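2024-03-11 09:14:02 INFO receiving multi-entity request
2024-03-11 09:14:02 INFO entity count = two
2024-03-11 09:14:03 INFO echoing inputs for audit
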Amino acid sequence: MMTKVKAQGLVTDLMPNIKLMQAAGHFLFNYHSDNSGMSMLLRKVYSSVHAVLIVVNYVCMAINMAQYSDEVNELTANTITVLFFAHSVIKLLFFALNSKSFYRTLAIWNQSNSHPLFTESDARYHQLALTKMRRLLYCICGVTVLSVASWVTLTFFGESVRFIANKETNETMTEPAPRLPLKAWYPFNTMSGTMYIAAFALQIYWLLFSMAIANLLDVMFCSWLIFACEQLQHLKAIMKPLMELSASLDTYRPNTAELFRASSTEKSEKVPDPVDLDIRGIYSTQQDFGITLRGAGGKLQTFGQPTPNNPNGLTQKQEMLARSAIKYWVERHKHVVRLVASIGDTYGTALLFHMLISTITLTLLAYQATKIDGVNVYAFSTLGYLTYTLGQVFHFCIFGNRLIEESSSVMEAAYSCQWYDGSEEAKTFVQIVCQQCQKAMSISGAKFFTVSLDLFASVLGAVVTYFMVLIQLK
Amino acid sequence: FIRKYIFRKTKTVADESTEDRIYSLDDFDDTLAIIKKVLWIVGLRLTLKDSDNARFWFSVFYWFETANILMAFTLQTMETIEDTKGASSFEDATTLFRMIPCIGFLPLAILKSYKITYYESMYENLINELRSMWPQGKVTEEEHTVISKALKQLRIVLKGYYWCNYALVISCVVPCYIIIIKNIFGKNEPGVLPFLWWVPFDPLQPIVFEIIVVIQTWHAILVMSFILSGDLLYFFFISHITTQFDLLSIKVNRFILVPTDQQLIDIYPLAIHYKNFKNKHSPLELVEMQNKKLCEAIHEKELLDIIVRHRTLIRLCKDVETIFSFSLLVSFLNSSVIICFSNFCCVVIEKWYEFMYKSFLSTTLCQTWLICWYGQKLLDSGERLSQSLYSCGWYWTSQKIKKNIHIMIHRSQRDVCVTTYGFTKICLASYTAIIKTSWSYFTLLVQTYKQ
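2024-03-11 09:21:47 INFO inference complete, emitting structure
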């Protein structure tokens, strides 16, 4: 659906990322300010041209790999490169096919609930999330540009050759190859001249755009996780004032006026907007009074007329605010759970493919690493591939891990506030919240594995083990 | 047919959904139909009332079939042992690899069907209880989505699995019949038996050969039916238990009403339930719902129904576990051995254009995946129930209801699943474990072969 959507919520926060993705050629056609047919067509043409160029060059690389598959070293090196850039092609395709799911996740936080006493905390953590997301985006953009620059620089060092197996003597010979960043088959001769420069320029463009495509999608995923984590931080932060509020309803506490300071200034405009004023007014106060009136032995009582009956002399509006705080907390937490579930549904399969391809790439890289014999181009390129691939896996593992930690630490926050002073209602609230938050929220790769630092450790451990075994076998 | 199709396309969405949303016990019985067909071949009479005489003869039939399979198993094992003794090089041992998958299936078949006879009352109880829980009459939109999706999946899986197994048996056996037909038309080709048996006489004599081929075909169909009966019943039970869990989750989501305000904005799911309630009921009823005592009484009664149903479903899962866990363990062991050996044969022995081992490998992979996928569905539906217990409006009820819900959340967070006799839970993660183990055995075999 390409209707004009007013930018709000997550879309506003992620706008730089979205704009960069649109520039890199992803099939992202929403969130433009101008939705006329002509510009839409132009954008589609732009994305399609990028897609065609990327796929065509990828296929050329694959043809090159098939051409020179006799010699083992050449084959391994070419396979690693092909697998390395498979991420970009897969992510481009994945986004094109799954864009509805992405739009749905981006639209989940378009509207969120609010409570007069907690708007300041909400805004603060939202700002924190925004800062972190921007910082992540700049960092990854910097890394991408640096990688492309170092790749191009490395092309100019070392011999530009390829290995051929001599069929008669069964030994490897070298044959001169064009000095290009990537080994690919082109229908024209690229050894020298204008064709060489054209191929070089094409490859620089290709390197930059394909890395950008893969990395920007990962950045979007991690930004979502950052947002979810900051929301959980906000919920943990307001647990303490919530307990104090609840305690103030039943026991005498000094300085209760301060708790309501936020509300006293905005009381006039921040009164909870009722759906149906009369009914709602009676409903909530009657019921709420019925629940938590102490001294009634837990039995419910309804009052003919709401009477403020608390030791701190709170007004009725302040009481309502205190009781609706729990409702705010629980509904906000449920909203975060829905967001995380949607993130998992949207991106889980992409993570599964990423991990599959990375596992194979890392296995081959471990084998290549055993052949390093000095500080030369080969060593640098192998180590470069290795760090980049491990870095990609680390990138989403660390944010997935943070989500797991944040969601399970909500229980600690609930326990460390003064729940023992709270009302019975607050205590049951803490009980159920603790029970629910024992099971941490996590992102899974289509149910096959959980994204956490454990995954990264197991991948790293497997690579190191494989490397050690191969060294021993040599 | 064409008119019905075109007419259906132009119906409005509302019409279509209202008509389709009526369910009856026929839908339930439909899913059981194909299983009953298989059970008839096997000779087991589940949920059918027979006279004592008919029962006796059917059990004789069943034990006769079992004896046949046992005989086939012994003869095949003896032949394999003979071959192994006579094998001089590794190449000869490859015939061994051809037989191992077939030998593996025979005890599995006997085990699966034996479980049905041993636990017959438990099977019948499961079927009857699930039948009594089946929703009848009109259901809501959400429930309809859940039920129709589950029914469609179950139908496709049951039919697909049934026909794929038949196709496998036919592909094993048809080459031999082709040779027989060729021999009738004068070509003198040596006969090839589908399965190698140890027999005290020459099995390739003219008349004896045909008889043995027919007997082996019948055995193959028997073995396949035995295995089918076990697996199809597993899919059937898990699918229906999962559907009931999902229906329970929908009921839990709905049973507490919470009014909308700034803390519960219009787009949240609870607010949508409130809006639907407001649309369906008059404002008078809405005011009634504010009477706290009345509300609590209603909530208590509904929660009691939910708890009783939850306990029943947990008990049914335990029954499924008792019946199926051991046979699933044997099935998984069998599958990992078959995957390992077929993989080896695919890579080392077969050419890239031949398909026998490749089809064997892919069928075993699919079968194991299907079992693990259903186990995962069960796990997921239990987890969805725990999620929906949290996402109902528990904070808007009395202390009593809150405490009940808390205890329910505690129990529902523990996994409800089927295990392989206590070793592992059946889920997609265990599927990856099986693949990894088979892969490591396969690489080991390849290394030994290279030396």
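2024-03-11 09:21:48 INFO post-check: Chain A touches chain B through 44 residues (CB under 8 Å).
2024-03-11 09:21:48 INFO post-check: The radius of gyration of chain A is 29 Å.
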